[in-house]
Specification:
Largest sheet: 6 strands, mixed
Strand order of the largest sheet: 23-22-19-20-21-24
Helix content: 25-40%
Oligomer: single chain
Number of strands: 24
Shape: globular
Length: 576
């Protein structure tokens, strides 16, 4: 506090956002306490869910700016960027060369912006034992919603169905320096001092210049959550009725009609009508943006994927696919088979991003998440066990073999009325059974002694896999293609089984079942829906699972009953 009081010119709270208009636009928001909290943050500055003294080891003042000496090019960019930030009113005037009591300075790096030659100034607030991100409560900064393609695609399909025969386009609007619109509290400004290493010798501290950063920055764990709390998207959806709008950090994107365009005076050109409405809202609120980042087209890059709303495809570019494969391979084959928690988090982030076009490959993360569970120290090494290495090899193999194109035109179908085939499954502690009504076929499998014997959930899931194996081996999906997959509905009365096949996420003991199912679905182009049915309506499969064959045949007089065997590989993997 003394440093702030004695150097008031180094600390300032401001935002380009018109706070009064922002508050008035949220007048009907149901969570009044949250709105009041966000408005107060814009007025007095963000406190990023931090404890500045999380342990007695943390020093009062810490200068870690030298932890990574920047290159000459980086130094020049950082120096120029600091001057620009001062001009924008986002950095304090320069001071130095020494930090004042209570201040922290960590390395700043120049990072290329995606798909651009431009650089971005990033504060490495995860560098070193006493870094700022170790002060921030990770549990409080989770949950910032990012609208992936898996959120957008159902909206796109709905929009297309509302405008049959119309040519569609996509548009994307970008906020300029979204995080930089959020002021931080002066007590946190103390903890984010930017150091510009000028002079011939970058190690000569007497030539260093210091700047207090007044805004939320790239590199802070709290910034994504802070920006998401500024509910501009909520205003657009609820007040302007832009129901097809999605948002991924600072990019808002949506779908429109090719023949629905509106003139936007500030940029002197036509844009899709809803894009203009959003830009005008930003202008009214004081949200900054610039012309070159407001784009539209019949094919457009959305969060790194090439999306065609008329062909209904999303494609991972070849260079991104190669980078993904290379990174996964290098991670899995690192010397001593150890990676830090930070490395694990980066990998899972990258893989989760790729799931926008590879949604069936979610099981690759099961053992990774299990290994990360409960671990908090970012730089602590974590051993890569055999299961993780195998899962990553499985993921790598599928990505390598894929075209990188995701066809989503046929994803929207009714599993009750539009399936090519329907199968009913059930399991008991003594057996499994499934029934194919269309063919009057029933199948049974006795359950032998097994480590999982007392877990009915395991047998229910394995029975679904057994039915899927039968469907593939019977060549009933011979007509299927990636563009037009076979539609298979499997009913089960076990909700846990429905959940894991719906989300493709399961604990490690059950993950081999999901991986085997995904292998079949990809190999034979099968779109599988596992749907819940009450036990009272699943009587035939229930009788088959208990080996009550007379009961099953009394329910279906022409029923032919045979036996089946579940995949041995799955059973073996589960027993290990």
């Amino acid at each position: 506090m003394k440093t702030i009081h004695e150097n008031p010119h180094l600390f300032h709270v401001s935002t380009p956002i018109n706070i009064d208009r922002f508050a008035s636009a949220l007048a009907i928001h149901p969570n009044r306490a949250f709105v009041a909290s966000v408005v107060r943050t814009l007025k007095i500055g963000l406190w990023p869910w931090a404890d500045t003294n999380p342990s007695s080891d943390f020093p009062e003042t810490w200068d870690n700016a030298w932890a990574k000496i920047p290159s000459t090019e980086e130094s020049q960019f950082i120096a120029a960027q600091c001057i620009e930030e001062v001009d924008k009113g986002q950095h304090s005037p320069a001071f130095g060369p020494h930090l004042l009591p209570g201040m922290y300075s960590t390395p700043n790096i120049a990072v290329p912006k995606p798909h651009s030659d431009d650089l971005r100034l990033v504060a490495n607030q995860s560098a070193g034992e006493y870094c700022q991100n170790n002060m921030v409560d990770k549990s409080q900064t989770k949950g910032a919603r990012l609208d992936s393609l898996l959120v957008f695609i159902p909206l796109l399909l709905m929009f297309s169905s509302l405008h049959p025969g119309k040519r569609l386009l996509l548009w994307k609007a970008d906020v300029m320096g979204a995080f930089r619109t959020i002021p931080v509290h002066p007590l946190w400004q103390l903890k984010q001092v930017v150091t510009s290493m000028v002079g011939e010798s970058k190690t000569d501290k007497t030539a260093w210049l210091r700047y207090v950063d007044w805004r939320a920055c790239f590199g802070s764990r709290a910034s994504p959550r802070a920006w998401a709390s500024v509910m501009v998207v909520w205003i657009a959806i609820c007040l302007l009725n832009m129901v097809f709008l999605c948002c991924y950090v600072d990019d808002c994107y949506s779908v429109g009609l090719v023949d629905d365009m509106t003139w936007y005076d500030p940029y002197e050109q036509f844009y899709p009508t809803d894009q203009v409405r959003l830009l005008r809202l930003w202008d009214w609120l004081g949200i900054p943006h610039k012309a070159k980042k407001q784009v539209w087209g019949e094919v457009l890059v959305i969060i790194g994927f090439l999306v065609d709303p008329n062909a209904m495809t999303a494609t991972l570019p070849d260079d991104s696919k190669s980078d993904l494969i290379r990174h996964v391979h290098q991670f899995a084959h690192v010397a001593r088979r150890r990676q830090t928690l930070h490395d694990f988090e980066q990998l899972t982030g990258w893989i989760n991003w790729s799931l926008n076009v590879y949604p069936l490959l979610k099981p690759a993360l099961s053992n990774i998440y299990a290994k990360m569970s409960g671990k908090e120290h970012s730089h602590a090494p974590i051993y890569l066990n055999k299961a993780i290495v195998q899962d990553l090899a499985w993921f790598e193999e599928h990505v390598e073999a894929s075209s990188g194109m995701f066809f989503f035109a046929n994803l929207d179908w009714n599993p009750f009325t539009e399936a090519n085939m329907v199968i009913f499954c059930d399991a008991s502690l003594t057996g499994m059974g499934f029934w194919v009504p269309e063919m009057d076929l029933g199948f049974t499998c006795a359950v032998a002694g097994d480590l999982m014997r007392d877990k009915i959930f395991f047998w229910e899931a394995l029975c679904v896999l057994g039915a899927l194996v039968w469907y593939e081996q019977s060549n009933l999906a011979f007509f299927a293609t990636p563009e037009c997959p076979a539609r298979l509905t499997i009913f089960t009365d076990n909700t846990n089984t429905v959940n894991i096949f719906d989300t493709l996420r399961a604990l490690p003991d059950y993950n081999p079942i999901l991986k085997a199912a995904v292998d079949i679905r990809i190999r034979s182009n099968i779109d599988l829906r596992v749907v819940h049915i009450s036990g009272e309506l699943n009587t035939v499969a229930d009788a088959l699972s208990r080996d009550y064959l007379d009961v099953a045949q009394s329910l279906v007089p022409n029923l032919y009953i045979d036996t089946f065997k579940p995949p041995r590989l799955t059973l073996g993997a589960t027993q290990k």
